Amino acid sequence: QFVESGGGTVEIGGSLRLSCRASGFTVRSRSIDWFRQAPGKGPEWVSGIVAGSGGTTYGSFVKGRFALSRDYANNSLYLQLNNLKPEDTGLYYCRSGQERGSGTQVTVSA
Asked: Nearest 10 degrees: CA dihedral of 45, 106, 55, 74?
């Protein structure tokens, strides 16, 4: 199970840190991805972290603005969002296999 938090409304260029708390397994044991979905659009992959090694990858649109990390003590993932743009607006959620959270809303106001 995943529970996301940390979303909100920010101005262009602002920052947010999203959290994804896992339960029922350790975040080290699974590869986990962040997705986002804007109103009226399909899901878009944002970033992923590999089980074990913790290697991270990002969508091409990220261009160095986001950073994904793991916190073993809190069994959580953090997605740091910097230099936000209006097109980053959407519902952000964690997913591993067929399991996903309900998400946290990010709104970037123009």
From this structure: -130
The C-alpha angle 67, 23, 98, rounded to 5 degrees, equals 75
Which pLDDT value is given to residue 54?
Answer: 87
SS3 87: helix
3-state class (DSSP) for residue 88 = helix
Res 79: pLDDT: 98
What stretches in the chain show pLDDT beneath 50?
none
**Neighbouring-strand partners of residue 9:** 107
Q: How far apart are CA 57 and CA 55, in angstroms?
A: 7
Residue type, 75: N
User: CA 41: distance to chain centroid?
Assistant: 17
Residue 87 has phi, psi (to 5 degrees) of -75, -5
